[in-house]
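Here is this case:
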Amino acid sequence: MVQIARDTLRAALSQAMVEEEIPRNVAKLVRVPKPRRRKVKAWSVGEASRFLEHAVTSGDALYAAWVLALTLGLRRGEILGLTWDSVDFDAGELYIDHQLQRAGGEVLHRETKTEDSEDFLPLPELCLAALRQRRQQQQEDQKAAGELWQDVHGLIFTTRYGTPIEPGNLTRAFAVRIRQAGVRAVPLRNTRHTTGSLLVAMKVHPKVAQRILRHSKFTMTFDVYSEASDEEIREALQRLSRGFGPSSPEPPEKP
């Protein structure tokens, strides 16, 4: 709180200097101790697998959201801002071009402004299958809602009536699913740390993983890959396969 107060005051005084109201920004001279942040240990591959298994077997409408958070490291606003136009099922690609944020008392659907949003992310088969399942769920919701359906953006994740999901509600839904699945609690914002382990488990190529994780240096990705044992990878793949099982797409027929 002390650091936030100092930063806020420093920003205000900087603007006052721009407007020539004061000669210098004295807040820049203040030094505050760096806060000690409690580090939350990321899920292991096994924990993430158990969580996804429970979500898919429970018919969780947000299952695809959890898959994207854990396998691609997407942030909350990025997940909720995804539209069906962002997904290319044929090419197996996902464009992170919008985000959903609460600002000024309302939920806003905005374009992302980062350079990363101009590129695409390759989608593992697990993600594609989960998104196909989500599309079927949404079609059923729209049919049940009838004229009450209100989706105007083509969002992937909506309420039963097509309205955007409140960002805070997604966080709460994640916490509820964790308790029901009986796995160790972690914040939704920390799932990105688990992404690396899951990419290892699905045998995604390290260079592809570097793009997904958006690591600036390949050595960071290599460190993630060097931490997982072959036995852990093999066990995780089997658990993911069993958990997703019936919903995975059928292989194409041979000509």
